[in-house]
Amino acid sequence: MSFRTTASVDYVEDVSPGRGALPPRAWYASSDAKSLSLNGSWRFRLSATADGEDDSFAGEGYDPVAWAEVTVPGHWVLQGDGAFGSPIYTNHLYPFPVDPPHVPTENPTGDHLRVFDLPDDWPTEDDGGAVLRFDGVESCARVWLNGTELGEFKGSRLPHEFAVGQLLKPAGNVLAVRVHQWSAGSYLEDQDQWWLPGIFRDVTLLHRPAGAAGDFFVHASYDHTTGEGTLRVDSDVDGRVSVPGLDIDVATGEQVTVAVEPWSAETPKLYDGELVTAGERVPLRIGFRTVALEDGLIKVNGKAILFKGVNRHEWHPEQGRALDLETMREDVLLMKRHNLNAVRTSHYPPHPAFLDLCDEYGLWVIDECDLETHGFTEQGWRDNPVDDDRWTPALLDRAARMVERDKNHPSVVFWSLGNEAGTGRGLTAMAEWIHGRDSSRLVHYEGDWNCRDTDVYSRMYASHEEVERIGQGLDGGAGKRRELPFIQCEYGHAMGNGPGGIADYQRIFEAHDRLQGGFIWEWIDHGIKHPELGYAYGGDFGEELHDGNFVCDGLIFPDRTPSPGLVEYKKVIEPVRIEGDVADGTVRVTNAYDFADLSHLEFEFSYQVDGLPTGAHTLTVPPLAPGESAEVKLPAAVPDGNGDDVQWTVRALLAADTAWGSMGHEVAWGQETVTPRTAVTVAASQRPVPGERLLITLGPATFDARSGRPTTICGLDVTGLRLDVWRATTDNDDGASWQDDTRYGVLWRKLGLHRMQHRLDAVELADDALTVRTRVAPAAAEVGLRTVYRWTSDGTRVKLTVSVTPEGHWTVPLPRLGVRFGLPADAAQEVLYFGGGGEAYPDTRAASMLGQWLPSIDALHTPYVRPQENGARADVRWAELGGLRVEGDPEFWFSARRWTNEQLDAARHLTDLTPGDTLWINLDHGQHGIGSQSCGPGPLPQYFLKAEPTEFSFVFSTTG
Predict the structure, then answer these.
(1) What is the chain's Cα-based Rg?
(2) Which residues pair with 303 in a beta bridge?
(3) Contacts of 323 (CB under 8 A, 6+ apart)
(4) 20, 136, 189, 336: which is deepest, by most CB within 10 A?
């Protein structure tokens, strides 16, 4: 065996999909054909360039004694403690010069070597052949087995198989794989994610017996008018198909119609079957369902559906895109438990096991091709591969590998051509091929606004106003588009604190038939676990180009802890609507499912007084069909609150264990205030008394006579009490760099709201009050806030009334408006309060359930990967900490943290935040909305915190 001394690397820049791989086929596990996982520890050598080493490592007898080791599946840049290079994050900019199909000479290339023996019971060559399967390699791979080159391939998130039966030997098989980080294929894989080279999905040796099934296509439709399903399994190799639960036993290619239970995301009924050929038995999981475009709507089983979905990148904070089955299952279970019903596999086909889970647990899937050329937007899409015929074979190969692999999954209802790749002839060729290959599903692509190649009008981040117009049919557009349903394939950008405004979107979706829902961007923060930074994001690895924490824009944190955004989304899309009529004591329950009735739920009712439940009752609700409503009388009399708030709460709970949730799991809830609380009053019966050391005493508080600021309240030391308008800007406050001058975080900072100066004008003592007059304003600006603090007391309590009058011409809303003060750090470790549970802001408060809560101070902090404003509790009536009770007039927003807002604003990672010797409390009259402007629209006008004359009060007393 001879080898070239210099490796030929022309294939790296070849626009073709590769050579040597077998045609794509369905992904399945055989019942009896042997398989051998080649996952595990591989020997590894990294070179700086594609031709840095010769090919001799691929031959038998090569000794890799000096090589390192990596784990497969895995990315080499996430292993070796930095010895193998670093991750790179860009949103859409290519991290190399745009000169298709050429890539840099500096092209990290990883040689992987695995020596393996066949199991003792591995069939001989006479018993059939074998294929070597790669489920995912980024971005280009060249493969040898026992010194024989098998070929090379591109298409990172797609499967590739090679026939190897004739090359295998009982022991000492040498599998060599050369992986290049950059290739022509990289131009087609400019997805918004980390660039992570490596063999990151499974490598498997599969025995293929003589007469093995090969490829097959399960066609399982459902007729909703008759309740019958029609099954036909087309197979490359003749055989028989049996489904014992339906008494089916037919030849492949033969059609049979029987009564069935249909598959849907709500009722994912799967029938176990088997395909038997002369050489192999293949288990089948069959779901009967029909997807159609009818009456201008996406219909499944004859019913228009509403997508309540999310975009999902594959991610693990330590393994990157190398996910194991349990991590995938955790994703699906979290989705189901938070009322999601759909996933768009942004922006590539996921590991095939994920689709098995979607079949099993029930999720609608938009399966997206491994295609994005977003970086070409920087040059007006010039030279875009999707409009260049030379690239069309690669595009068609990617489409075919997706469709053929995933075609037997009932959860897949759409094929998506890819993402942010402009328009062009290549996309049209893909759409035509997919429509011709599989007429049982629809085709999606967001970039085709004229819908030439697609079956749905899809957009990203359209504003509420535009979505409303689209729902009303007032959006204009070409004739075909006007006849198609609309979805938001991306909306509600979940970056940092947010997204805001999704409840408003949902109301619009549900008001217009044409609007069939959307998919929040996105599922998980792509933070990389880091020993010094906590979680790293773009720029933390010294990237020349990067997009910072734009990669951390998920509904769950990197460790898969749900964020407040996911809790909010769960409430917004809950499949049961519970509303009340306080006047007549009834609850209106509406079934918002598409297919399921409510027989799987039980309803629990309780009154609560001052945030505490008075006892639970069963609420009898009929098993309503989808879309039906019922008025249900409350089963108990309203308790006397004696001046306290009285609410009722109704919760819809799972009546029994399901595959994804335990009995008692909360699916939906509703809450109404029956009797509002009596406003707190404090008689101004005490006068401020000057004392020694320039102190003034007023009831249970003392004040500095020079500044008028309190030094103690109810025995607690108090520092720095003053008006506060600043918050550590959120990602959505700051907006995206390409957006216009409504990026209020930028405008706030430009105006100087983060460095307000407080001028003392007067400290006035009267018989009934201590009044402090100030003006709060930023340097270099003529605008200001005339602020008056008026303190009164009845002897045991002290009341602060704050009056704020804007001066000058305010062109921006305020970030927040309230007072801030400090307490000793050890004053309290937890807070008891009556108000909304969990973080909430004006346009993210749907999930804020009123009650009494007892979080720790640390639990009030939301650990966004990039620190920012967080943790506010809404509708707080009162809060108690450290022996101090604060009551609001009216309700207020409460937050407490161990660092100042300015320190929070300056932090770039969680590890930058160090607790100090002061516990900082914010009592806010108002907060500005959150919105989604890190990529989408900002807050709606009704959530603006306008600079206008305002007055609010707080009453301080001791607890108990």
Answers:
(1) 31
(2) 300
(3) 314, 315, 316, 351, 354
(4) 136
Residue 553 neighbours by CB under 8 Å, 6+ apart: 493, 494, 495, 496, 521, 522, 525, 731, 934, 935
Handedness of CA 263, 268, 273, 277 (dihedral sign): positive
> Tokens representing 513?
């038939």
- The secondary element (H helix, E strand) that includes residue 193 is strand 193-195
Question: For residues 500 and 505, what is the distance between their CA atoms, to the nearest angstrom?
Answer: 10
Structure-token pair, residue 697: 């005493």
What's the distance, CA 347 to chain centroid? 14
Structure confidence at residue 7 as a pLDDT band (50, 70, 90): low
Q: How would DSSP label each residue in 250-287?
A: EETT--EEEE-PPB-SSSB--EEEEEEESS-EEEEEE-
Nearest-angstrom CA–CA distance, 147 and 153: 18
Domains annotated for the chain, with CATH where assigned, are 10-209 (2.60.120.260), 216-291 (2.60.40.10), 304-571 (3.20.20.80), 576-675 (2.60.40.10), 689-958 (2.70.98.10)
> From CA 854, how far away is CA 857, in angstroms rounded?
9
Q: Label each residue of 11-40 as H, E or C.
A: HHHCCCCEECCCCCCCCCCCCCCCEEECCE
- Segment holding 372, helix H or strand E: none
Q: How far apart are CA 102 and CA 180, in angstroms?
A: 13
CA 774/CA 772 separation, integer angstroms: 7
pLDDT, tens digit (0-9, with 9 covering 90-100), for 686-739? 999 998 888 999 999 999 999 999 999 999 999 999 999 999 999 999 999 888
Torsion of the alpha carbons at 909, 910, 911 and 915, rounded to the nearest 10: 130
| DSSP symbol at 22 | P
Pair of tokens at residue 27: 């992904």
CB 459 within 8 A of CB 446: yes
Active-site position among 161, 420, 568, 574? 420
Residue whose token pair is 């008692």: 664
Rounded Cα distance, 441 and 413, in Å: 5
Residue pair 889/955 in contact (Cβ under 8 Å)? The answer is yes
- Separation of alpha carbons 728 and 927, rounded Å: 12
Q: How many CB atoms lie within 10 A of CB 184?
A: 24
If we measure between CA atoms, which residue out of 362, 364, 347, 352 comes closest to residue 414? 364
Mark whether 152 is an active-site residue.
no
Cα separation of the two ends of the chain: 88
Which is nearest to 284 in space by CA: 440, 407, 368? 407
φ and ψ at residue 592, rounded to 5 degrees: -105, 10
- 622-681 tens-digit pLDDT: 999 999 999 999 888 899 989 999 999 999 999 999 999 999 999 999 999 999 999 899
CB 794 within 8 A of CB 777: no
Q: How far apart are CA 12 and CA 154, in angstroms?
A: 9
Determine contact, residues 238/277, Cβ cutoff 8 Å. yes
Closest C-alpha among 485, 482, 502 to residue 493:
502
- Other C-beta atoms closer than 10 Å to the C-beta of 590 total 16
Contact yes or no for 823/882 (Cβ under 8 A) = yes
CA 127 distance to own-chain centroid: 48
Choose among 237, 188, 248: nearest CA to 212: 237
Q: What are the two backbone dihedrals, phi and then psi, of residue 733, each rounded to the nearest 5 degrees?
A: -60, -45
Buried b (16+ CB within 10 A) or exposed e, 328-344: bbebbebbbbbbbbbbb
Instruction: Name the strand (E) or helix (H) holding 821.
Output: strand 816-824
Of residues 531, 581, 542, the one with CA closest to residue 911? 531
User: Among the options 13, 280, 368, 490, which is catalytic?
Assistant: 490
Give the position of tokens 């309203």. Answer: 638
* pLDDT bracket for residue 5 (50, 70, 90): very low
Q: Please check whether residue 957 is in contact with residue 888, taking contact to mean a CB–CB distance below 8 angstroms.
A: no
How far is Cα 395 from Cα 879, in angstroms, rounded to an integer? Answer: 60
pTM attached to this predicted model: 0.97
Q: For residue 379, what are its two tokens?
A: 């040059």
